[in-house]
Amino acid sequence: MPLPVQVFNLQQPASSVSGSGGAESQDRMRDSSAPSSASSSVTDLYCTPHSSRSDLVLPGTAGDFSLSASLSACTLLYEGAVEPMQIDVDPQEDPQNAPDVNYVVENPSLDLEQYAASYSGLMRIERLQFIADHCPTLRVEALKMALSFVQRTFNVDMYEEIHRKLSEATRELQNAPDAIPESGVEPPPLDTAWVEATRKKALLKLEKLDTDLKNYKGNSIKESIRRGHDDLGDHYLDCGDLSNALKCYSRAR
How far apart are CA 43 and CA 119, in angstroms? Predict the structure, then answer.
């Protein structure tokens, strides 16, 4: 006896399938648009200058980290923070690069000779010029001392510069309304003979030191080479050539 067979009709109308699929797709679109709209609304609220952190409740979605990062960036921009890679900042706004104020000392209580005796070489001349720039009452005396000290070196350019400053300072002192007659002493004339002789001596000494250094390098004597670089650096420093002096001192180390 044959068994009864029950046949099920699994086919559905095309309209019902398409309708259910359309409904599911619409639901997915609504679900996907909801976080984006929420994030855009929160972002707009966070990026307004009138918003505050206490007024915001961030959504608990998977994109919380990226959303909070973008909101933090908006907050920093509205707080006026300068980004690390911003290079178009006006250098005048930086207090570290601000120029020093040119102050003036009117009533100095300084023994100029004793002060100058505590320095030697180029530093003594530089300190005397510094006093001349900031102390009008000691300007002429400081420049005269600097002029006498610079003639013990090979620095011809500094000699001419100090002599020019001394001439201007003496002229200003003579033209002052309360000038003292005894103070109207003319500066010494520019010693052109000393300038020419010093330049020749400096050139001859430079050639000698350079030749000695080449001989030391040929003999491969390390201590002599080091001493030769030091001597050459001392000569450049005596001539006022600080760049070449630094190079020679660096090679000697």
Answer: 66
Tell me how far apart the alpha carbons of residues 77 and 72 are, in angstroms, rounded to a whole number: 9
Identify the burial level of 85 via C-beta atoms within 10 angstroms of its C-beta, where 0-12 means exposed, 13-18 middle and 19 or more buried: exposed
Where are the alpha helices (H) located in the chain, listed in sequence order? 14-46, 64-78, 112-117, 121-134, 139-150, 156-174, 192-219, 222-239, 242-251
Share above pLDDT 90 across residues of the chain, in percent, rounded to a whole number = 40
Angle at alpha carbon of residue 127, lines to 126 and 132, rounded to 5°: 95
pLDDT of residue 185: 65
Query: What DSSP string runs through 3-39?
Result: PP-PPP-----HHHHHHHHHHHHHHHHHHHHHHHHHH
Token digits of residue 16? 């019902």
Q: Which helix (H) or strand (E) holds 85?
A: none
Phi first, then psi, for residue 33 (nearest 5°) are -80, -20
Identify the burial level of 15 via C-beta atoms within 10 angstroms of its C-beta, where 0-12 means exposed, 13-18 middle and 19 or more buried.
exposed
